[in-house]
Amino acid sequence: MQNSFELFCFLKNQGYLKNPPHKLWWPNAGSFEVVIGAILVQNTRWEKAFEVINRLKMQGLLNLHSLADISAENLQAFMKDLGFFRQKSQRIVVLCNNILSDFGDFENFCAKASREWLLSQKGIGNETCDSILCYGALREEMVADNYTYKLLKSYGYELEGYDELKEWLVCGLLENYSKVCEIYGYEIPINELYARFHGKIVEFCKEHRV
């Protein structure tokens, strides 16, 4: 496998994505829910994180203002079956307050928040940052994760660090963008391409236990 375009073609030919919950793969992409989900899913199975999201929805708490106003201690009550639930509850409350303070609302955050701003927030690393930007703010940011690292390692790649892994994923797609559009049959937006490509990788790795 010479580049990420070849990986993309392989996954597409294998039928991925398979019945995604959203066109962009992540459930409710383009919504504030993604910000919270990206934090909850850290070192946690997605199914467990999704249970917490549903609990917050049922209580009318899954919005920026409610999570900025709630205490971390009260938020923990919805999250006790998650790993690191105390840290996550504190970081969610602080992040929501910082979004309100610096951007005013979620829409303005999506339009103006920089990658540097997100990475300066406690508990937000590269993968979480790019997940929020790609799936929440619908930006042209490719997500690289441990699934990607393990998959490429199985093909003999030894890429050092997140930035190198992300660059490998992006370069092959952009260099062959016209071919990607031919495969899809339309000029696919870069954000959609990145979102779906990451989803293909995750689905394949989960199904094949990579």
UniProtKB/TrEMBL annotation:
Coiled coil: none annotated. Pfam families: HhH-GPD. The keyword Metal-binding applies. The keyword S-adenosyl-L-methionine does not apply. It is an enzyme of class 4 (lyase). Keywords: 4Fe-4S, Endonuclease, Hydrolase, Iron, Iron-sulfur, Lyase, Metal-binding, Nuclease. Residues 40-196 form the HhH-GPD domain. SMART domains: ENDO3c (SM00478). Its EC number is 4.2.99.18. GO terms for biological process: base-excision repair. One of its GO terms (molecular function) is metal ion binding. NCBIfam families: PRK13913.1. This is Endonuclease III. It comes from Helicobacter pullorum. The lineage of its organism: Bacteria, Pseudomonadati, Campylobacterota, Epsilonproteobacteria, Campylobacterales.
